[in-house]
Every structure is written in C-alpha cells, then in structure tokens.
Design a protein that fits this description.
single chain, alpha/beta, Spore Coat Polysaccharide Biosynthesis Protein SpsA, Chain A, nine-stranded mixed sheet, 10 helices, 9 strands, binds uridine-5'-diphosphate, binds magnesium ion, cell membrane, transferase, Nucleotide-diphossugar_trans, glycosyltransferase activity, membrane
Length: 320
C-alpha cells in the first residue's frame, strides 16, 4: 500500500523567534509517526524580519520543507488559503508558528482521520489571559451568528485542524474575497471531530492580532453568512411606519375636532430624530452588504506569490 502523505501548513508573519523551535518539535513528531510521509509547507505572509532566511536555511537541511512566499502581508485567513491551495498531501494540518498549539496533538488527529473523519479540529479548553468582557462579548457574538446563519460555527475552535482531501477540495472552491474561514469549515460540512487542548504561551515574539482585525473579522462573519440584519431593518421599518400611521390618525382627528394648534414641538423633534437615526442605521447596514458585493465583483485573485521554493528548485509564479 502507498504511504499516506500529510502536509503541515504553517502560515507565518514575522516569527523569527519561534520558527526553528517549531521545526524541531514538528521534526520530532514526524519521527514518531513513521507510517506517514510528511512535508512542511511554510507560507510567508509578508514577513519583514529574518523569518524567510531561517526557513530557507532549514530547507537546505530538510528537503521535505517547501516555502511559499506571498507578495505581501494578506492576513492569516488568506495565507491559510494559499497553504490549502499548495498542499499536496492526502491531508493537511494547519498549525500556528508560535507553538501555542501542541504539535504532539497531530498524532491524535491522525488517529481520528484514520477512522474516517474529514475535519479533526482542536478546541482550546480554557481561554486564559482573556478578560471577562472579551469572553462575554465573544460568546454572545457566536450565539447570535449561529442563530442568524443556521450553520455550525464552533466558537472556540481555531484553525488548528486536520483536513482531508475532501475538505481541502471543497475549501479550495470557496474563493470569497473577505474570508471568514471559521464559518467556511462548518459550511462545507463533512464528518467532524472535536478534540480539546490546553493552549500554551507563545514560544516567543508577540501576537499579530490587532483590535481592528478582530472587528473586521467579526463584521465579515456576519455579512458572509446571513442577510438577517437587512431583514431586521426592514421589519423595524414596517413597525415604525405602522405606529406613525396610527399617530397620524390621532393628530388628524384631533385637529379636525379641536381645531389646529401649534403645540407638538417635542413629539415632532422626537419623531424626526428617532426616524433619522433609524434611517442612518439601515443605510449603514445596506452599505455593509453593498461593500461586500463591490469587493466580490472586482473578482481579483486572492493573493500573489512572490516565489515558491520546493525541492531543489524555486519557481517564480504569478497569479494562482
Ligand atoms: N499570522 C499570519 N498573518 C498575519 C497574522 C498572523 O500568517 O497577518 C500567523 C502568525 O504568524 C501565527 C498565526 O497566524 O503563525 C497566529 O497568529 P498569532 O499567534 O499572532 O495569533 P493569536 O494566537 O494571538 O490569536
Ligand atoms: Mg498565537
């Protein structure tokens, strides 16, 4: 029987402090799983530091390493897609470069893969070092998103997961511009298995997340999977018009029976301000979706590759 091949995909952005350590841990792991053929696909997401030379040096020692060098920093979501596109294995495992996720878990993932699961993902048991407010808002966010979109989004599941060929081929076909991969895993379906792990501290370097990326991702999550906000704003519109109609009748009858009076300034102001606010919010919601449509219609490639180093050769490539 042919040996099964597993690609380990590592998207990285300025991770010079940890790459070598990561490689050593992964290398040890591959020795323990001698039933499989491993290769490593490092995806450079526009690093400015010494990360690329470090990977190239590792590659000289170990021919299983390939390096996909993207043309700039596109963000982890896109870097992961590039990794999925270029992975050659029968399955792949996505892992962060910073060793917060224990590589040893890959063994367990492989076991479940052997038992027929297509998507084996690891969930952080406890989110240490996060404030109560962040925990609360994030759990609320996922509850709303899940209810609104009707697809399973597993809140604490990150991108540390094994995907088999079926998942890989499915995900490759979803080429939306503003990706929210967490939802895509659920959307494509297939047989899923959940595992748990304790997240470690970063092995070195600093986190690459900014509050704005988190906000963007949260917004993308909603606009990619549900049009419910549009429906809600339409419904509010109906209710408000109905109430306004009744109030109009009251004012009309009052005026006819009791004669016109110039009072009513407060109700006028309240009406104008309240309705004005509602209109702006609805416009904003429409704008969010329109923005998405605009981005998608441009139909741009999702990323460009500067160079692909693999085996003994390096290839300069253009569009993928
Ligand atoms: N990363 C990336 N591109 C980015 C930001 C992050 O490829 O624009 C990589 C990063 O190098 C790491 C992984 O994504 O391998 C997770 O990032 P990080 O550890 O900073 O996120 P956190 O664990 O703090 O959520
Ligand atoms: Mg991390």
């Amino acid at each position: 029987m042919r040996m099964k091949r597993l690609t380990i995909v590592i998207p990285f952005f300025n991770e010079e402090m940890v790459l070598e350590q990561l490689y050593n841990r992964l290398e040890r792991l591959t020795k323990q799983c001698s039933k499989y053929r491993f290769d490593f696909l490092f995806v450079n997401d526009g690093s400015q530091d010494q990360s690329v030379p470090i990977v190239l040096k590792l590659k000289e020692k170990d021919s299983r390493i390939a390096l996909l060098d993207l043309s700039r920093n596109y963000g982890k979501e896109t870097a992961m897609l590039a990794g999925i596109d270029y992975a050659k294995g029968d399955a792949l495992v996505i892992i962060d470069a910073d060793l917060q996720q224990p590589p040893e878990m890959i063994k367990e993932m492989i076991n479940w893969w052997e038992q027929g699961y297509s998507d084996v993902y690891a969930v952080r048991k406890e989110r240490r070092g996060e404030s109560a407010l962040k925990k609360l808002t994030s759990s609320l966010y996922y509850k709303i998103l899940q209810k609104a979109s009707n697809i399973n989004i597993y809140p604490h599941a990150g991108d540390f997961r094994l995907l088999d060929r079926k998942m890989i081929n499915a995900l490759k076909q979803l080429r939306e511009q503003e990706r929210y991969t967490k939802g895509l895993y659920g959307w494509v379906g297939f047989k899923k298995k959940e595992l748990f792990y304790d997240a470690d501290e970063r092995a070195g370097g600093t986190t690459k997340w900014r509050a704005t990326t988190l906000m963007n991702l949260a917004m993308n999550g909603i606009t990619s999977y549900t049009t419910l906000p549009l429906r809600i704003s339409a419904m509010i519109g109906v209710v408000v018009s109905f109430v306004a109609f009744i109030y109009m009748m009251i004012v009309l009858i009052q005026t006819l029976l009791l004669g016109a009076s110039v009072s009513g300034y407060p109700s006028l102001m309240i009406g104008i301000l309240f309705l004005g606010g509602l209109q702006l919010i609805s416009l904003g919601i429409i704008g969010e979706y329109l923005g998405r449509v605009f981005n998608e219609t441009k139909n741009r490639p999702l990323y460009f590759v500067n160079e692909y180093y693999q085996g003994n050769s390096s290839m300069k490539e253009g569009v993928v």
